[in-house]
Amino acid sequence: MRKHLAKLTMACALATSAVFAATQAAEAKYKVYLSMSYIGNDWQAEAANMVKAMAASKSLRDKITLDVQVAGPNAQRQIQQINAMVQAGAKAIVVYPISPTALNQAVKNACDKGVLIFAYDSIITEPCAYNTTIDQDAAGAQPAEWLAKQLGGKGNIVVITGVPGTSVDTARTKAAKEVFAKYPGIKIIAEGNGMWSQAVARSELSKIVATHPWTEIDGLWMQAGCYTAESMQDEAGIADKDKKPCAGEGSNGHRIQMLKSAEGIEGAGGTYRPMGYPSISYASPPYSGALALKNAVAKLEGKEVPKLTTLPLPLYTNDQIKLCKEGTWKEMADGCNVFQPAIISNPGWFASIYSKDTPEVGLPAALVGQPEE
């Protein structure tokens, strides 16, 4: 009986010790939050996957816990969530801000309490915040310049913008319109708000085409939706040689359409096919959130991190599109920038996922939130 009690006591002690050790280990991790605003498009889902994959990577999984919250396109809701995260003991908050200025007071309050704020893609103007983004002015202006020259400096164009209120949409649209203003022969005949979504872009473009038929449109500048625009022209019976040039996003479907040859393509069908669609493709890389998280942890560990990280702008014309046949890290490092339809079935999925600064995340990260192992 005594021996049994002794064994039972020892077992309980070991179990208690294990629970205590696990609790200590969990408490030793940095508590990090991901605050997302509008999520109704492929880019946001992909970026969130890459943040989650970074958190689960070998380099970070023993250092942090990650809690993801979504505010939607509501600045007040995002402010409330950030305040609650601070109260819950956040050490860092990685955020996609719905506005560059609306969150500033909440961000400053967080910084004053020692919480790091790292924004990605869309910026926060509060000086204590860290920002990871591309040159959004160039992302708007350079495709606009390409389109104006493609049209010989004259023609009717349609403009489809992004999520209103974000620094991304504001900067790109302003820069593009400044370029078009330099060409007296270029006329913007219609605008729509595409929310960076292929589905919303289709809806907006359908409304526009109802009053401005394709015969009146010479070109398109779209923050997202070039894939959809080409598909709609197919549905309207417009021959490939007569398709309207599109300056737009880096979706996989769009880049497949830009390919001039079907050689090596597997799984292409319908409008998701190579046909040399005259386009220029740019992207905000979806890995920006993952890099912001990585830098936030580095800063928590006392390392130097720049307040502004400006990522390279992926910008490709038809001749620069290169097929990724397997989607391996080596292929991406060698410069491929569009994936086999057999690998990526969603044409709205964004293809610019490679960065030498984020070897922890690749194709599995962007697809399902799994890190490189």
Overall mean pLDDT stands at: 92
Number of helices: 12
Largest β sheet strand count, sense and barrel closure: 6 strands, parallel
Helicity level: 25-40%
CATH architecture of the largest domain: 3-Layer(aba) Sandwich
Which strands sit side by side, in order, in the main sheet?
2-1-3-4-5-11
**Number of E-state strands:** 14
What general form does the structure show?
A: globular
Residue share in β-strands: 15-25%
Unreliable runs, pLDDT <50, ≥5 residues? 11-26
Radius of gyration, in angstroms, nearest whole number: 24 Å
By CATH's scheme, which homologous superfamily of the largest domain applies?
Answer: Response regulator
CATH topology heading of the largest domain: Rossmann fold
Give the ordered list of helices and strands. HEHEHEHEEHEHEHEHEHEHEEEHEH
CATH class of the largest domain: Alpha Beta
- Compute the separation of the termini in Å: 50 Å
Q: Determine the structural class based on helices, strands and strand pairing.
A: alpha/beta
Overall tally of structural domains: 2
Write a structural description.
This protein is an alpha/beta fold and 373 residues long. The chain has two domains: 24-134 and 285-312, Rossmann fold; 136-282, Response regulator (Rossmann fold), CATH 3.40.50. The chain is 40% helix and 18% strand. The protein has twelve helices and 14 strands. The strands form three sheets. Strands 2-1-3-4-5-11 form a six-stranded parallel β-sheet, with helices on both faces. The longest helix is centred in the first third of the chain and has 27 residues, at 2-28. The protein is globular, with a radius of gyration of 24 Å. Residues 11-26 have low confidence and may be disordered.
